[in-house]
Amino acid sequence: MSSAEEQVKILETNAILSSNAADQARSYTAITQDLESSNSSVATQIEKRAWFWTSNSYAWSLTTLVLLFLLFTALEYALIELNLPAMNPHDRDTIKFPRNLDDLRRLNAVLSIYMDKHFINVYVTFVMTYIYLQSFSIPGSMWLSILGGTLFDFWLILFTVSMCSAIGATFAYFISRSLGSVAVIRLMGERLKNWNEQLVQHKQHMFNYMIVLRISPLPPNWTVNLGSPHLGVPIGAFFWGTFIGVTPPSFIHVQAGAALDRLSSSDKLELLTPINVLCLLAVALVALIPVFLKLRYHLDIADKLINIISDQECDVFKNNVRYEDDKPVECP
């Protein structure tokens, strides 16, 4: 076959490939438009039913969440009343969620008295209360972690706090996905949209991304718990990423609780010391190492493919282009 015929063949092949690529692009555009139209139609139908009393309505979803919260609050109160040992009225008045260092000291002083004979009761109450706070994103879990450091063995309570955080967050995940989906999507629409743009870039390493999210203060934990099921975050990556991600900050809280007895009444409890902040940053960087390695691995493969394609194009160029004296030319 002559050089001219080979060039014609190459041009015909390129034309066919270009045509196929154009057809694929048109098909992709059509599919995307159909999906957007379908999603818009579904959203419109949900919005039309928003205030009607149906299982897909905003009113039903919000009411269900409120009733569920009230039910579990009543169960939590009953658990505290029934599970804790008999106390005198003064000690009983001290049993409440700690909100500051003074509350923490008083609660620790009371519970320490009952720990020897009623360890299981106090421990079970601690676990159920922690899960309750995490399930409904109620502030106060940090103070409970510090309290746990004063009452229990360090490593026992560190594992307990991390596991309770993961279990409570998973409950919030399922509540948001099943009962509160319409209310959550409506109330967090713009926030979910902005967060989804970030999640798209981390789909291949969601577990590591979830660890970093739990270590960092932003976005807030309640946003992660309620929004994750609506953005396609796998439950496995969500649970174990939460379990590992909350361990470093929990370590700081439990450690502070273990040192509470050594603090005088005038001392302040410092959590975010420079050393603690550096430790959190170090853990976050360690969690990102697999992500960087994976990205580097994919980039190396891409570079190799580009080099292979470039070598093939170069061979075609050499075979089809000649100088007037019939000497081969070098690739440009």
UniProtKB/TrEMBL annotation:
Keywords: Membrane, Transmembrane, Transmembrane helix
Organism domain of life: Eukaryota
GO BP annotations listed: autophagosome assembly
Residues that span the membrane, as ranges: 58-80, 120-142, 154-176, 231-251, 271-293
ATP-binding as UniProt keyword: no
Family assignment from sequence similarity: Belongs to the TMEM41 family.
Entry protein name: VTT domain-containing protein
Gene of this entry: PARPA_10928.1 scaffold 41991
